[in-house]
Amino acid sequence: MKTFYYLHVILLIISTLCFTTCNIDDDPVDDQDIPESIISSKTAVIGAQGGTLVYDDGTTLVVPKGVLTTDYTVTISKIANEQIFGSVENRNYYDISGLPIGTKVDLTFPCPLGKDPAFVGILNYDPETYEMVQPEYDYDSEKGLISVSDFSLRDLIVKKKRWIVEWGDKMPEKGATQKILEVPFYNQISGTCWAASSVMLAKTISPYTGDQKSVEIPDFLRDMELGFDTGIGVYSFMKVLPGVFQKLTNGGAVKSEFYWSQENCFNEIVKIIDAGKPCVLYMAVHGHAVLVVGYKTVPGQDYSKYGLYIHDPNGYNPPAQDPEDGGKWKGGMYWYRPFDWFHQGYTLSTSMLLIPADPMHSNTSSQTIGFPSLPFSDGSLLSFKYYKEVAGTISIKWDSSEVSGYKWMTKEGSKYVKTSVLPETTKSIEGKINIWNADLGKPAECLVNLTFTNTKTGKVTYSEDYQVTIATDKSKYVFTFNVDTTLWLKNNGDVSEIPFNFKCSLKTSGGDLLDSWEVDFKIKGAQPGAYNYIRSYMSPKSKIYMYNSKFLADLESGCTVTGGGFRIMEETNMPMFKKVVFGIPKITDNKTVTYNVRVRLSALELNPAEWNEYNLKNCKALIKEAQYYSNGYTSLNTSGDWTIPITIDKNSKNKTISLDVILGTICNGVTTSDEYGHGLIDIYLVME
User: Fold this and answer.
1) Cβ-count burial 113-129 (b if 16+ within 10 Å, e if not)
2) What is the CATH number of domain 177-364?
3) 158 and 132 in contact (C-beta within 8 Å)?
4) Among 351, 417, 558, 645, which residue's CB has the most CB atoms within a 10 Å radius?
5) Is residue 498 within a helix (H) or strand (E), and if so which, with residue range?
6) SS3 sequence, 258-274?
7) CA pseudo-torsion sign 113, 114, 117, 120
8) Nearest to 165 by CA among 81, 266, 67, 59
9) Cis peptide leading into 540, omega within 30 of 0?
10) What is the pLDDT, as a whole number, of residue 387?
11) pLDDT in tens, 553-599
12) At what angle do helices 217-224 and 241-248 cross, to 10 degrees?
């Protein structure tokens, strides 16, 4: 006989969990959706003389003499399709009802003979609040009985009416075994560990093509109706998540299971991994979800020396303690955790599993590209830069209340507010995107493709590939980009609110799709020259005005060829934020040719009428800073007259110089502002 002397209560309603329910039309039809029912019941009247109630399978309730002062009708019912724990072969479920608060009882439950005591247990819980307790109990392996004696905790008989008996066995001796599945990885942002783990699992069982929208973390948040930082609760994980998962993966079947015996849970995970399937594991003791991708055993069947390999969506490499989260240890992909880590010494440590019906598909990508969101705590970024009265930023944030699962936010003062349309003064889009390589065997040579599509016309206005190499060190690769609005807007005089789609794709070096995400937005089309402005900070009243600057850029392009000589190819006046194209003869021999592109920027005198009330006269442009980009940034002087060299040979393709000028204003000989406006000229040299 084995006696267990512990009594431990865990409230599953903790600050990191919520219990949100929603109607999912696409729930799979399985035992998780069949309402629970009563198989049969036994009833007896028990009063002051005490009494015994015996159910058909031998489950027995004894109330000692003198505990009650009047008669009560007591019922034992056996439950099928239990609403949270489901119909598991190695469990029995009972409801005991009819007794008042504080009643002292003795209980006996049948259990198979000869089981290892570490794999036998009993749980008492409230089906409405999910509060759980594991009472002291004896297991008699020779008689096959679990006994709970002198049980009288307040409220437990009345409110925690459900009793669950569980049993299991040690897994067969596996010796020194290590098995790891190669599974894609994504990192979480804020409290989205369960959603990030679900996305990892989704990408292993539901392949998609470039014509399909990839399932992402905000899709799970939206369809589960769960907030950014609220986490997930027992009911949502067990009953709602499987249906949402199937919907988002176009039929990827999964089931959920609940465990309080970590040994039995470990056994189930090993079976799942051996079947070629990863699974989501939620651990109440950590308040955290991970994806289990492997396990390790040693000879001797000592579970304390076993362990699991997990994808921890925290994305830490190397693993480290987070001082801002109570010093919790956090890891990343393929993080090995010993068995004891999963229960942290608690005698009752509940866990939930999300288990796929099928193994990983053969087209699973080991390289993934993350979808960023405010607060960008993972170091990612996706924002538009614009100029209004002051420089501003419009950033993306996941939001489960939005149909798209996200919204665009701009900061006003100390608060972020929703923005429906980007202003016509939007300068650029910038991003820092996390890319992961779960293939530990070799680095990955990939392409990142950025594509803008005007969804009003259906035309792709910009598409560019960028080469990246992702190492095998379990760390993220951060892909950084900044694309000027003039390169993708191409509104051709359309000054309405123009809808766009921006798609960020990860591809093989040969162009095959590995992973992608996409977002939609609207931007106000600009009037001709609307980007051409400077901004002045007016003193003494600190009032800000916007106006077209009337800046002109005189561009001269010449070339130096073998033997000397100089010739004018084209001369033009262009406003700022424009594109200038020059045709250049293609080199056909082995010579190297240097072209000198000369840019002369001058400004006309400015006297806007609205400045008169401030007595500001004789206003002119002031060049604060200037630089150009061509295979790297190079600073220029502030003279406004520059010569920029470009060297090409027969292998050169089209070249681009991006000239960025930061402008200010000087009036009456005094600089009026430390605030800047920007001018941008893109000079394209096309090999003809």
Assistant:
1) eebeeebbbbbbbbbee
2) 3.90.70.130
3) no
4) 351
5) strand 497-508
6) EECCHHHHHHHHHHHHH
7) negative
8) 59
9) yes
10) 67
11) 333 333 322 222 222 222 233 333 445 555 556 677 777 877 666 66
12) 130
Q: Position of tokens 């470039």?
A: 210
Do the beta carbons of residue 476 and residue 405 sit within 8 Å?
no
Question: For the purposes of burial, counting CB atoms within 10 Å of the CB of 40, is it exposed (0-12), middle (13-18) or buried (19 or more)?
Answer: exposed
Query: Domain 369-524, what fold?
Result: Immunoglobulin-like (2.60.40)
Separation CA 374–CA 410 (nearest Å): 11
Q: How far is it, in rounded angstroms, from Cα 234 to Cα 18? A: 8
Residue identified by tokens 């790891």 is: 180
CA torsion sign for 47, 51, 55, 56 is negative
d(Cα 379, Cα 88) in Å, to the nearest integer? Answer: 43
DSSP string for residues in 157-179:
TTT--EEEEE---PPPP--SEEE
Question: For residue range 2-28, what is the model confidence (pLDDT) as tens digits?
Answer: 444 333 333 333 333 333 333 333 333
d(CA 567, CA 572): 15
Ranges assigned E (strand) in 129-273:
131-134, 137-140, 145-151, 162-166, 177-180, 254-259
pTM of the model: 0.73
User: Which H or E run includes 201?
Assistant: helix 193-205
Q: Architecture of domain 37-80+91-166 in CATH? A: Sandwich (2.60)
**Cα-based distances in Å from 411 to 374, 385, 400, 546:** 11, 12, 20, 20
Q: Which two tokens stand for residue 680?
A: 């941008």
pLDDT tens for 138-158 read 999 999 999 999 886 554 555
The two structure tokens encoding residue 279: 């699974």
Round to whole Å and give the CA distance between 311 and 323. 21
Cβ-proximal residues to 288 (8 Å cutoff; 6+ apart), any chain: 193, 282, 312
Q: How many angstroms from the chain centroid is the CA of residue 563?
A: 60
Structure token digits, residue 278: 């990863």
Measured between alpha carbons, how far is 276 from 426 in angstroms, rounded to an integer?
A: 48
Q: In terms of Cα–Cα distance, which of 31, 15, 36, 33 is closest to 23? A: 33
Helix (H) or strand (E) holding 194: helix 193-205
What are the C-alpha distances in Å from 38 to residues 31, 70, 78, 116, 391? 15, 28, 6, 30, 66
**CA-based diameter of the chain, in Å?**
121
Measured distance CA(196)–CA(330) in Å, rounded: 15
Q: How far is CA 102 from CA 4, 69, 158, in A?
A: 22, 13, 9
Instruction: List the one residue out of 76, 67, 30 whose CA is nearest residue 48.
Output: 67
The rounded distance, in Å, linking the Cα atoms of 452 and 94 is 59
Asked if pLDDT for residue 485 goes beyond 60, the answer is yes
Least Cα distance to 584 among 658, 649, 487 occurs for 649
Contact criterion met (CB below 8 Å) for 482 and 472: no
